[in-house]
Amino acid sequence: MELLAHMLRTGLSTITDVLPIATIIFGFQLLVLREKIPNLKSVLVGFVYVLAGLTLFLVGLEEALFPLGKVMAQQLTEPAFISKAAHISGQALQWSDYTWVYLFAAAIGFSTTIAEPALIAVAIKASQVSGGTISVWGLRVSVAIGVAVGIALGTFRIITGTPLHYYIIAGYIIVLIQTVFAPRMIIALAYDSGGVTTSTVTVPLVAALGVGLASTIPGRSPLLDGFGLIAFASLFPIMSVIGYAQLGEWWFRRQQRVKSQDNKDSNR
Amino acid sequence: MEQIRQLLDSILSSVRDLLPIVLVVTFFQLVVIQQPFPDLSRMITGGLLVVLGLALFVRGLQQALFPLGECIANAFARKGNLFWLLVFAFALGFGTTIAEPALTAVAGEAARIAAADGHIEDMPGALASYALGLRITVAVAVGFAILTGVYRIVKGWPIQYLIIGGYIGVVIMTAFAPPEIIGIAYDSGGVTTSTVTVPLVTALGIGLAESIRGRTTLIDGFGLIAFASLTPIIFVMAYGMII
Q1: CA–CA distance, B18 with A87 (Å, rounded to integer)
Q2: Residues of A (249-268) whose Cβ lies below 8 Å from B
Q3: Cα B35 → chain centroid
Q4: A193, A126 in Cβ contact below 8 A?
Q5: Is the same domain home to B40 and B135?
Q6: Is B71 inside any structural domain?
């Protein structure tokens, strides 16, 4: 019964979320473009799928994953747990005592990114448009690795208390250098993957982790230091996706070189 | 028969998508924290809902959001009316952002930070107007982003100059913006792009790149989301400097 009420509430908020989009699209379609939408019935049915799918997805996450994930983030960041795991007592904690926090940050960043529906959408499109050169899983895994590294580094920043903008500016400089050397076709997609990583699944858990950490470490304010993890999660995938393309290109060249070598050898 | 197989296929791939989360959570709960799962039946129900929901969403994506975005892009390209295309781009960005729940949450939090800092008065009215101002700022930023991104596709400008120029702007503004707004500004870039907007906007960009002669889909079609995550950072820092 409670579950049903939850579903209704979430369904309603999903509809309010989609309503402005639908109004704008159908408004322009009717007033400006004045064209019929092909397969209107199938599109409308698809819209219902999107609404129902998102609702069930969110309700399920809120029932199962979010409460547990938030409790876990709290427990892992508790000073008592960290001292016990690092086998020290009575001493002040060093940044190197937080191994499980870094591992949890990376693992949760990776796994929630794999499940992120918006990223699935972009990966499907990228694979269609590139004729399969960019594979759906290749893109998703490289984005997820980027998010994992980003969030782990973000927790390190909260623990050590270094200013956020040093990291972000250094990250931008790396992206800039990578852009110069990257294959042109990947650039736009790589920049895009920074933005899609952080939505429905990742943000609530990562925010809980950031706030949990910032509130247990002396001298950090959850309001000021809890922010910023999302920024890491949107910066690092740009690097990892460009890296993925560069690796792919390198691999392709190597294959070709090996092939031409083989041809020469067999001609001999 | 065919339909049942398709449904099973998409449910199976949803299971695969969610498997990493299940593994990570189980490992940390049982091995690291060493505690049993609280309320296991509720977790299983929730898990089933997530799987079913993701399968339905991906189905609807291919059936509604992708074709719709492409169809609009084609129609605009055929009409050749740049003005209305740009109006549409701005409206789409603004409209989808202003109602975004994640943004509302961040804006409320930001108002509390500003009040705790003595930047604005700690009164409900002042808080609400600060939060609303922030939401409008971000929505205008995203509208502007989609507009710029669409204009770029039409003109065929290389994306890296615009984005890197934007980053340089971010770096310069970081030096002058009040410290308490910086974290919020950086994060607001990440919360703007919702699960429904992303597929639609992506399909719009690719549709435009496909229907305008001389554009390559992979090089020119992507990049709208990148603008939408960049401009809010700049606009929010500007908001923090002005208020």
Answers
A1: 34
A2: none
A3: 36
A4: no
A5: no
A6: no
